[in-house]
Write a structure and sequence with these properties.
It is a single chain. This protein is mainly α. Helices cover 64% and strands 0% of the residues. The chain has helices spanning 4-16, 32-37, 44-57, 59-72, 77-89, 94-111, 128-138, 143-165, 170-179, 181-191, 204-213.
Length: 223
């Protein structure tokens, strides 16, 4: 039976990582628009491989590692400043840099509705993953649960972008969420035990797509 504490944690995660939370994540595709344009992710099978790679070997996995470090740094301002600086430095393109800082700034501002002294340590423009980790830790949200919800939110945004590109329909999008459920759970469990030594990416194609998007002539998204 769920306790009031666990139910409250679930509600807060649902609020913070809901599409309705005012962070502007809908404006970014993380390079997916470029990949679709170039024919690298223009069918359900290719999209699944794209998202699975991001979750297990790409930028989303790194974001999870940084979130976990932020979660653990909630009471250590110096350690928190270091991981925030690292998260910003790891943004591999101008658009990726804009995305992680702009969404992080909006998330921290909106999360102020749940006051906590730790928010003051985030600064005015924290990286998104670090901000989520700090806010979750400050509100006693379990790390693994936070990571699972965070990964699901990233995937949901990616699926939403793919639907808007016309690559898949809504039913196919829901099917992708279902197919990658186990991947999310495994990634969350592994990342909860990670350290900064586990940072690394093998998703070169996604990184190049993010860079190529900067000069794409016609586009719907900011990244």
């Amino acid at each position: 039976m769920a306790t009031e504490t666990s139910s409250r944690a679930l509600i807060r995660l649902m609020a913070w990582l809901s599409p309705a939370f005012p962070v502007g994540g809908f404006a970014y595709s993380g390079g997916l628009e470029s990949a679709v344009h170039d024919g690298a992710a223009n069918d359900p099978a290719a999209l699944r491989q794209w998202f699975e790679t991001l979750l297990t070997r790409g930028a989303w996995r790194n974001d999870g590692v940084l979130l976990a470090e932020g979660w653990r740094s909630v009471d250590d301002p110096e350690r928190l400043a270091a991981v925030a600086a690292l998260a910003e430095a790891l943004a591999g393109s101008a658009e990726r840099h804009l995305e992680v800082l702009t969404i992080g700034e909006a998330f921290a501002a909106a999360a102020a509705a749940w006051p906590h002294p730790a928010l003051d340590s985030l600064g005015s423009r924290p990286p998104y993953s670090v901000a989520v980790g700090v806010v979750a830790s400050a509100q006693a949200i379990p790390l693994e649960s936070c990571l699972a919800a965070f990964y699901h939110a990233l995937l949901s945004q990616g699926v939403s972008a793919a639907i808007r590109f016309g690559v898949i329909g809504q039913r196919q999008g829901v099917a992708l969420l279902a197919e990658l459920e186990e991947t999310i759970l495994i990634a969350a469990r592994q990342t909860a035990c990670s350290t900064l030594d586990d940072l690394g990416s093998a998703a070169i194609g996604a990184d190049i797509a993010s860079l190529r998007h900067e000069t794409q002539h016609t586009r719907l998204f900011r990244s």
